[in-house]
Amino acid sequence: MNIYIINLIMLFVWRIVFEKFKGKEKAVELSIKITIFQMIFIAGLRDISVGTDTLTYSYIFDSAGTLDLRGLVKYYIETGYMIWNKLIHLLTHNYQFLLIANITVTLLAVKRYIQKYSKDQFFSLFLFITIGYFMSAMNIMRQFLALSLILFVYDFYIERKYLKTLVLSILAAMFHLSAVFILFVLLIHAILYRSKLASIKKIRCIFFCMASCVFLIIICNAENVLPVLYEMFNLKWNYKYALSGAGIEIHVFSYSLLMKIIISLLYFFLIDKLCINISERENYDFWNYVNLISCAINVLAGYLSMFSRLNLYFSVTTIIFLPNILKSFNINKFLKCFIYIGFIVLYFTSLSSDGAVPWTSCF
């Protein structure tokens, strides 16, 4: 646990030290780079006992080394991830290099996304750590590789490069099948915000009301609906496990859901006071839409565990949306300090319950 606390503290230490010699802007850039390197070190050089699925993925890595292309395709894990394992295995049989490669790809994708869209890059990386994404990346590596591609999908979609959006979404699904859901979410957004229907008044309100009704029907009739869906899509998971839920007390009324609800409420009621141009307004509308999707999935996860991991692709935009809203409001230092302390407290309270704790090195 101590190494995670030190990692967070050093993020602030590097910024304070570099501000004295390089100035504020350069200090932020350097502190982010060094902290990214620290996290690659922590996650890449961890023991296989650190992380919920780390040991299991070591077996998959060994299996990939013995399989030909046909075997990789037929394996029970998604083909993209198996090919990725095979490529690493051709370079070295040491599983530790796969851990290093996985976390490097993930963190570089996150760093790029933060640098391109965040108005407060330091706070964005701080949120990535304190909300728990970094530690989760050691638990569900395959899904975070898919997330790395999803971040590029968001990028291409915002820039209206739809062919690249489609190709990257399919590629992400080749690492984790759940990533294919992003296409459905983006299609709905395109209809509501970018098509001719977007000009119809109250169309978005009507859609969200209808979607809420569908969610309620699924929740209330889950025992009847899920078996049909599993048979329709030939899913091999145990739907009875999916029905177990992830815990109403933990997920529905979690700090994460509460935070996302507050963010959207702030955006809805104070949007006219934000210091943003038309282009930025489109981006903010998009992040708010994704935030609302995340809230809905957060609620569903409390009843159906199959939704718990799906939320990762949408909730991660919080590290961009929240800093940008706060930056646009030009909040005072006292309030910002209070927000930092709040996230630090939540981070400390969640450390003991994570699968990446306790941390031990591979040496």
Distance between the termini: 17 Å
Overall mean pLDDT: 84
Element order, helices and strands?
A: HHHHHHHHHHHHHHHHHHHH
Strand-residue proportion: under 5%
Cα Rg: 21 Å
**Helix content bin:** over 70%
How many helix segments? Answer: 20
Low-pLDDT segments: 238-253
Alpha-beta content class: mainly alpha
Shape: globular
Question: What is the number of E strands?
Answer: 0
* Major sheet characteristics: none
Report on the architecture of this protein.
This protein has helices spanning 2-22, 24-44, 54-66, 69-74, 79-91, 95-117, 121-130, 133-136, 141-158, 162-173, 181-194, 203-220, 222-232, 239-242, 248-251, 255-270, 278-301, 312-315, 318-329, 333-350. The two termini are 17 Å apart. It is built from 20 helices and no strands. With 363 residues, the chain is mainly alpha-helical. Helix content is 73%, strand content 0%.
Outline:
The chain is mainly α. It is built from 20 helices and no strands.
Helix and strand arrangement:
Blueprint: H1 2-22, H2 24-44, H3 54-66, H4 69-74, H5 79-91, H6 95-117, H7 121-130, H8 133-136, H9 141-158, H10 162-173, H11 181-194, H12 203-220, H13 222-232, H14 239-242, H15 248-251, H16 255-270, H17 278-301, H18 312-315, H19 318-329, H20 333-350
Question: What are the main properties of this structure?
Answer:
single chain; 363 residues; mainly alpha; 20 helices; globular
